[in-house]
């Protein structure tokens, strides 16, 4: 998808949906949880420091700072592009928007949702449509940024924690098990929300139905859980080699995306490549399309490649029980994905998915 073109299309759009109380509630919860997550991440790094686990502390801080810089670059680019030709850019205003965005990703989305409700109560149709469009823009942008938050910031920390548990099984507590469950659910939920928001801003596409959302959630949960478990186990026995292999995977995927998809998101080629690196990290765990085009062959190549990776790693290094879990989850995810595109994909036949 070309994000600039998508945003321009919204300007001429009619109001296709409403912002419900449930949407507002979920956005408010998301905004609050983002702030809590930031605090917990820094507390975790401090806890590692107190226990003299300096390698763990460094890894945690790196997984906080690097995504913060990357997402700030991407979001600042979004703000700069959206203000081109409208009004002069005030850099202090941009700075505070970036700070607010880091702490409360959904703050602007929530603000436009409240303004939409106010306009609806006043029966001001023009303001209602304008607030809806701005809400949809911001939701799409934030969903885009949240994708990188999840895979650049949260995923490395959860892999570290899961690797510690796999190395020292007695360190698994009910609280840690709960955080892993929440993490895996968050991955699937974030990707479902990202995919749905991308469809909503493309006027020629139908929304995903409830059945489709449920099936999509489960196949994304299976695929991402399988990959995370596989990587975490390898990190528990060969941390340096696993990190190097993941970096190689990121670079290969980033260059393929940069050459084949040629995203036009940024105002320069450097920012476009930074974006591709971000997607490269995402592709360590799961595939999500960069451009709006048929994805059948991309999914086929990516899933085959990752399944082959999992299979080789499981045969050589991973115990049988965990190997079975990893591969069953991945195959279940692939089967559910095929079912989704055959039976649940809205408005598009399975021949061109």
Automatic annotation (TrEMBL):
Listed InterPro entries: XK-rel, XK-related_scramblase
Transmembrane domains' residue ranges: 24-44, 56-75, 174-194, 214-235, 242-260, 266-287, 299-318, 324-342
Location, primary (coarse class): membrane
Gene Ontology BP annotations: apoptotic process involved in development; engulfment of apoptotic cell; phosphatidylserine exposure on apoptotic cell surface
Membrane topology category: Multi-pass membrane protein
Top-level taxon in the UniProt lineage: Eukaryota
Keyword terms, alphabetized: Cell membrane, Membrane, Transmembrane, Transmembrane helix
A Gene Ontology term for the protein's cellular component: plasma membrane
Subcellular location: Cell membrane; Membrane
Record keyword Secreted present: no
Pfam families: XK-related
Signal peptide start-end: none
Protein family according to the UniProt entry: Belongs to the XK family.
Name of the protein in question: XK-related protein
Protein's organism: Drosophila grimshawi (Hawaiian fruit fly)
Higher taxonomy: Eukaryota, Metazoa, Ecdysozoa, Arthropoda, Hexapoda
Name of the gene: Dgri\GH12280
């Amino acid at each position: 998808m070309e994000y600039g073109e998508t945003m321009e299309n919204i300007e001429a759009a009619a109001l296709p949906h409403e912002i419900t109380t449930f949407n507002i509630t979920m956005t408010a919860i998301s905004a609050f949880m983002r702030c809590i997550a930031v605090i917990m991440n820094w507390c975790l790094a401090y806890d590692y420091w107190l226990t003299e686990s300096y390698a763990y502390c460094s890894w945690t801080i790196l997984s906080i700072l690097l995504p913060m810089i990357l997402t700030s670059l991407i979001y600042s680019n979004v703000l700069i592009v959206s203000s081109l030709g409208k009004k002069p850019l005030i850099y202090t205003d941009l700075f505070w928007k970036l700070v607010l965005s880091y702490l409360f990703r959904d703050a602007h989305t929530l603000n436009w949702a409240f303004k939409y409700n106010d306009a609806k109560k006043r029966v001001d149709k023009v303001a209602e449509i304008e607030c809806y469009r701005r809400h949809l823009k911001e939701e799409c942008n934030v969903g885009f940024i949240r994708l990188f938050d999840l895979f650049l910031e949260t995923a490395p920390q959860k892999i570290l924690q899961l690797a510690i548990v796999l190395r020292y099984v007695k360190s698994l507590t009910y609280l840690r098990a709960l955080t892993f469950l929440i993490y895996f659910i968050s991955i699937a939920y974030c990707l479902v929300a990202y995919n749905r928001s991308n469809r909503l801003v493309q006027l020629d596409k139908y929304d995903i139905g409830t059945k489709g959302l449920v099936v999509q959630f489960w196949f994304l949960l299976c695929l991402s859980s399988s990959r995370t478990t596989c990587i975490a186990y390898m990190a528990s026995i060969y941390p340096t080699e696993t990190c190097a292999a993941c970096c190689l995977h990121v670079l290969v995927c980033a260059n393929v995306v940069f050459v084949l998809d040629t995203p036009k998101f940024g105002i320069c080629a450097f920012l476009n490549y930074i974006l591709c690196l971000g997607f490269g990290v995402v592709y360590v765990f799961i595939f999500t399309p960069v451009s709006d085009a048929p994805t059948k062959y991309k999914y086929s190549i990516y899933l085959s490649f990752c399944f082959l990776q999992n299979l080789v790693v499981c045969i050589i290094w991973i115990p049988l029980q965990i190997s079975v879990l990893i591969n069953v989850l991945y195959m279940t995810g692939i089967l559910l994905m095929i079912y989704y595109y055959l039976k649940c994909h809205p408005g598009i036949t399975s021949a061109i998915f």
